[in-house]
Write a structure and sequence with these properties.
243 residues, 42% helix, Rossmann fold, homodimer
């Protein structure tokens, strides 16, 4: 891990860009914590530059709540090299949506599964590096991003103690198998009127989660209109499980 | 309304039993509030004596949060006279459940609709009396109990500003029509693994609610195992809408 930039945000939070090999990432820490704090991995759908305002907002809330927060770029997104197969899958999705066709399992698998298979080990490698830092210690939480990535990560990465899953993207069939292997507490956020969200699948996924403690919060507001109180409830979930 | 008893609970809360005609009820107030406070109507499935511990717990939380709280007995429950039709419907339900048969719409209608049709005007009459008291003023919330009663009340009673609905009982088809007429903020609690809860119906009911702000919280814990954090989230919902 190599830090490439550093700046202090208005509220004193320290924001550092880093690279892990060719993978760009960002780490936010309080800059005034006297001891190691739990780490929040902040997931997103890809494109750090585009997602920066929302990422920074979530990260700042996490740091204010007593955690460190970090994210990395997804494979094939942002500045990272594209894969022809991923681009083809996105084009096929676009075509199906424009033609008014249902988005079939085959397109979903081609769109999402390679991303999961590549991204999950990358987030685990990022965890290795981030947990070696003096600022981090204790539990790790994962929140948001592509739900199939979050579910797989929560299923296979033992250092993740709690998962916040955002039901806002297509769900491959394999993700249901991953879900059954998840045992850590899970908080699923569902925007009930999200036109991009196959709601039935999201509810079935919640049902499939193997966690003995799991909670689903459904609200109105469309894909990006998560109510503020919902964000606060998610923050309390992580406070309960990471501290 | 006639107060029939009064006692001070350990935490200073004033608990008064009352009758409204032949209907027994209980009112809880802080006993030290200097001005009128919003009122929480505390719903329940019937049988004040049996439900008292849970009712008192919810009422005390409401009073601690700055509200007055009140409840009345349901028609045909507790000490109130039974109706032959209601008893027949309960017997038919029991027989269907014991025979492993699905509980059909007809039994649900006979079990729940007469209760709704009688109870809702009674809760409205209780509201008339309770809001005439010096201790109450401002907004009114309704929480819990038989979901069909809560939905009808939220739909027809303009003084109710926010509804907490507990999805733990059978839902008549007519309740979906009532739900579409609900416009106030709604917080629906669903115990995902509640064996008495027709989950699909509960989700469809949430969908049918006409409220522009609504939230569904689903948790594990069975019919009576609502996690403490879930109760706190509901309390925050009412704090947002009643204060």
């Amino acid at each position: 891990m190599r830090f490439t930039s550093e700046r202090r945000l208005d509220d004193g939070i320290l924001e550092r860009e880093f690279t892990l090999g060719e993978i760009p990432g960002i780490l936010w820490t309080s800059g005034s914590a006297s001891e190691p704090v739990p780490l929040m991995l902040v997931g997103h759908p890809g494109g750090l530059r585009t997602m920066y305002p929302r990422l920074a907002g979530r990260a700042r809330q996490a740091v204010t709540n007593g955690f460190a927060a970090a994210t990395i770029e997804l494979p094939g997104r942002g500045d990272r090299p594209r894969s022809p197969e991923a681009e083809q899958a996105r084009a096929d999705l676009r075509r199906a949506v424009e033609a008014g066709e249902p988005v079939g399992d085959e397109i979903v698998d081609r769109l999402i599964l390679p991303l999961v298979e590549q991204a999950v080990p990358e987030w685990q490698a990022a965890l290795d590096a981030l947990l070696a830092l003096p600022e981090t210690g204790g539990r790790v939480g994962y929140s948001g991003g592509v739900i199939a990535v979050g579910v797989r990560l929560a299923a296979v990465e033992p250092r993740i103690a709690a998962a916040g899953l955002y039901a806002g993207s297509f769900i491959p069939r394999a993700t249901f198998d991953d879900a059954r292997l998840v045992t850590v507490p899970a908080h699923v956020l569902l925007q009930w009127d999200d036109e991009w969200n196959p709601r039935r699948q999201a509810l079935d996924l919640f049902d499939a989660l193997g966690s003995t403690e799991k909670t689903l919060h459904a609200n109105l507001g469309g894909h990006t209109g998560v109510p503020q109180f919902a964000g606060e409830e998610a923050a309390r979930f992580f406070a309960r499980h990471l501290r």
